[in-house]
Design goal:
By secondary structure, this protein is mainly α. The protein is built from eleven helices and three strands; from the N terminus they run H-H-H-H-H-H-H-E-E-H-E-H-H-H. Helix 2 packs parallel to helix 3 and helix 3 packs antiparallel against helix 5.
Length: 239
């Protein structure tokens, strides 16, 4: 069973009023924490994706939610040293080989760390508005056109009951396909797919701005996609 995380609304207003202090403390922890896992930089400011993703959400999502996975992983290394040595994708592809006493926390926290690191890179301010080249050709071949692909990803995101992710990925057959995964699972884990783009559909990714309207969040999120990075991911997945 996966450990389910919940978004605590009751304390939201008070927490965000103190956001500067909290984020500063977390940033300091990220810089000084021992262990092989580190919180990656975004590569852009927390307000850079406005108005599509709000500043407060980006700050807490990165420095609080993502940092929690990093902290937990560094604590798990002592219980399973291979965690800090093996590539994440190798671990995902053979989850049954992870020692049973740490398997669930490794699945949740390594998945969360990998997914969020991927998520930050697949967004960018002021990027290309549409895919091109080989990626566009593959999307057109698999779905008809980019608009239909977006609609299918949206449906995958809306269809994920509770928390999870929606993905455009390259399957083992080297064809584009759309998946959704629960909690912090990645497409590598059960179907051996390699992600091209992925969207976090946990409530913490959108609730402050969109409340329960996940579809509105997904529609806005497309305006942030880094299609150059997506093309790079596609090329690697097809190699």
């Amino acid at each position: 069973m996966h450990r389910r995380q919940t978004f605590k609304l009751a304390a939201g207003a008070a927490a965000f009023a103190a956001s500067g202090t909290i984020l500063g403390r977390v940033a300091a922890l990220a810089q000084t924490a021992d262990g092989p896992f580190k919180l990656p930089p975004l590569g852009y400011a927390y307000d850079a994706l406005e108005p599509n993703i709000d500043t407060a959400t980006m700050g807490f999502h990165h420095k609080n939610h993502h940092q929690s996975f990093v902290t937990n992983l560094n604590g798990l290394v002592g219980k399973w040293p291979d965690l800090g040595k093996k590539p994440a994708e190798q671990i995902f592809a053979a989850m049954s080989s992870v020692p049973q006493d740490v398997r669930t926390p490794v699945r949740n926290n390594l998945g969360g760390h990998w997914n969020h690191s991927f998520f930050w890179q697949i967004m960018t301010p002021g990027g290309a508005k549409a895919p091109g080249g080989d990626l566009k050709s593959a999307i057109d071949g698999a779905f008809g056109d980019v608009g239909k692909m977006k609609a299918a990803v949206k449906q995958a995101g809306l269809g994920r009951f509770g928390s999870g992710w929606a993905w455009l990925a390259v399957g083992k057959d080297k064809k584009l396909a759309i998946f959704n995964t629960p909690y912090q699972d990645t497409p590598h884990m059960d179907v051996g797919a390699k992600p091209v783009i992925g969207i976090d559909v946990w409530e913490h990714a959108y609730y402050l701005k969109h409340q329960y309207k996940r579809g509105d969040y997904i529609d806005a999120w497309w305006n942030t996609v880094n299609w150059d990075k997506a093309a790079e991911n596609f090329k690697k997945a097809m190699a």
